[in-house]
Amino acid sequence: MPDQALIIVDLQNDYFPGGRWPLVGIEEAATNAGHVLARFRDTGTPVVHIRHEFETSDAPFFVPESVGAQINECVLPENGEPVVLKHHPNAFRDTELKTLLDGQGIRKLTVLGAMSHVCIDATVRAAVDFGYDVTVVHDAIATRDLEFNGTDVPAKQVHAAYMAALAFAYAKVVATGEVIHSPE
Cα–Cα distance between 167 and 163 in angstroms, integer? Predict the structure, then answer.
């Protein structure tokens, strides 16, 4: 039984063009995520999908039971792949994710999805705190332009800053090609 799993975080319709909260570079990130997903499926490595829903119908996006809150077709679950529903940025908080992973003897995680500065960051840091060895696929992750204190921060810079921080102390940060061309 493999001791690793792919964690796909929040690749949901609202983050794509036409959704309520579209991300910069989401289509390219989703294409790369699809390549990584295919690699994990081909090798029989477990895949866990994370899906976020806010708990109220007046949420800015990921409204409960909406089309926007559904997993995008580029990474739809199949063959009994579990879907973990979360209501917080950290996919471990108040979910069965840790129990699911530990029950399968998983110790290594590959993480991709959205958004770099919120759910990816929170989930990766929590995973490391729980003792998992984490790899982040940086070009299979998207985010948004941000603003802080009158300063506009382009998505590319937001993403780079978060990937640099994760690479410094939390995870191995790699490109899609490194994952799909690595030996099993």
Answer: 6
- Residue 68 makes CB contacts below 8 A (sequence gap 6+) with 12, 13, 14, 19, 20, 61, 62
Residues 72-92: tens digit of each pLDDT? 999 999 989 999 999 999 999
Of 139, 149, 143, nearest to 178 (Cα)? 139
User: Do residues 143 and 116 touch, judged by C-beta distance below 8 A?
Assistant: yes
Range of the domain at 75: 4-180
How far apart, in whole angstroms, are the C-alpha atoms of residue 123 and residue 22?
Answer: 21
Cis, peptide link before residue 115, omega less than 30° from 0: yes
Residues 53 and 73: their CA atoms lie apart, in Å, by 17
Domain count for the chain, please give it: 1
How is residue 144 written in tokens?
A: 């948004």
Token output for 49: 């999908």
- Burial letters for 52-83: b for 16+ Cβ neighbours within 10 Å, e otherwise? bbbeeeebebbbeebebbebbebbeeeeebbe
Q: What is the pTM of this model?
A: 0.96
User: How do residues 59-69 score in pLDDT, each as one tens digit?
Assistant: 999 999 999 99
* Helix/strand/coil for 164: helix
